[in-house]
# Entry
Amino acid sequence: MNTVNPYLPMEAEVVERIQETPTIVTLRLRLTCADARHRFYCAPGQFNMLYLHGVGEVPISIKSGPQHFLDQTLLLDHTIRAVGRVTRALVRLQPGDRLGVRGPYGRGWPLDKAHGKDVHIITGGLGCAPAVSVVHELMRQRSQYGHISVVQGVKHCDDLIWREQYEHWAKQPDTQVLLAADQPDARWRWHTGMVTGLLDQLTLAPHRSLAMLCGPEPMMRASAERLIELGLSPDNIWLSMERNMQCAVGHCGHCQFGADFVCKDGPVFNYPAVRELLGTRGF
Amino acid sequence: METPAFLPADRLQALLELLTDDGYRCVGPRIRDGAVLYQTLDDADQLPRGVQVQQSPGRYRLEQTDSPRRFAWANGPQALKPLTFAPHEELWVGELQADGSLIFHDAVRQAEPVAVIGVRACDLAALSLQEQHFLQAAPDPYFRERRRQLLLIAVHCTHPSDTCFCAHTGDGPEARTGFDLSLYETDTGYFVTAGSPAGERLLARLPLEPGDAGRFDTACDEVHAAAARQTRDLPTGNLQADLFARLDHPRWQEVAERCLSCGNCTQVCPTCFCHSEQEVPDISGTRSSHQRQWDSCFSPGHSYIHGITLRQDTASRYRQWLTHKFGSWHSQYGRSGCVGCGRCIAWCPVGIDPTEELHAICTEVKAT
# Structure
């Protein structure tokens, strides 16, 4: 049948497996078909459906940014927490293993709206993964943006992944990195508590700032509301949502959040679009 | 409107034969398990004769009358939905090769041409909504193939049930669009109109007689009378705004105490599109079939996300179904997701009537 089938995966190979924490693994993937590699392009904040043979599919955000698509080697990084039936099996894959990939899907971060502005990236837990690609992109085009803050909170300090990356960003000009852990150990030198407790420390010029949020919903809601109290306009707050996604093209109906299909209308939303329903039980 | 030509009742078989000659499998209403179901039709005599349907909340019963009519029934549990959006189908197959590589095979198949006789206006409206859902941004090839091969012969409805409210939603009982051919039924035959080029070609080959204007007026009056007999309606005003302003209304809890969360309403609904995907590996582990089947927002798995079920109770599931069908559909597809077929009322095992729930939630004073 000579038609494009949005459901059909492409084959990919695991090139590298990085054990980030006991339950978090990054799989570095290479599409095996050269033609598929050439065609693939994604914006920061989009996601792929990863398929494990005989097990099933799950949506996983793409950690690689546009800088990875400039050469022909295209490697796709996906950071996965073993939490469900499919992800527990996915994190066991080893270099050389094959899997299916389809994507990219959804709307990513509003880089066009961030041009010339200060950008504050505020994440919690593994919410840092969909945001890393956007930080990489901001750094790659550093002169296009004003002040950059990267704020990440974790439950236990051992959950913090990519510590060296944060330390590297902290050394960049006009860049602020703030980290928080609810449960620190003796060596933790950053903030103890919730990520929202860090927001007052932001170098925040509300009139020229844009915030990008990703993490658990209560964390995003509390952060967005605090940013608004600090003077940021709700229109300048963007957040990345998650829901049950099975088709990724707006057909299967599971990811509906009010009138939005998170898979195609999101996962990145402008805060006013979701503000009312966010935190309403059952949506 | 010019008086359409007339097909005498005893020549209905000629229509079936023409369709069969053109390569169509004919599908039409037949009686099975005490209900009118769309099934393969080999002969016009297999159509019900004089069968009418009594429907009320939680109740569906056939009634045999002396009428010679074949289409004197209101809708059965099925709509056109299973013919385009299959209840269960394979999407693709993954094959593990000896060297560890994976090959994916598309399972989109050439659909067989199907001609449906006896389509209702409500179901045509529902099909149009499903087309919007499945064929817009990322066209679904499985749906598209089946839809492409479908020929639709509507019969304007003259016998709505007590549960019907298509006149209120504006979708019936007269079929105005979306059909290839339409029939106005009388005791002695059918006035035939075409709604598409394929319908025109078919009409030109039928053994028709000139239609009588007076008798055609009577046939049209019957359809209008069918609209006037309907009693159910939806609250007026902006249902989307009204529903989302009443997410804490006590009625959600009250209806949840009656609702079994069985999902029957969503399975008989001609516009519900939710489906789940699952993996069915063979015993050797080398071949795995990726399939989909109809799902329901009443199932616990519908709102599952990384270890959490967002809608754990029936109240939140019932609220999801109603706020979506009558509310957020407006934003998604420019109109309500309800075509007034009333199936969800008749096929609810405990007789919950969404029109009554909507009135209770949206018309009564907002709870404080």
Chain A touches chain B through 47 residues (CB under 8 Å). The mean pLDDT of chain A is 93.
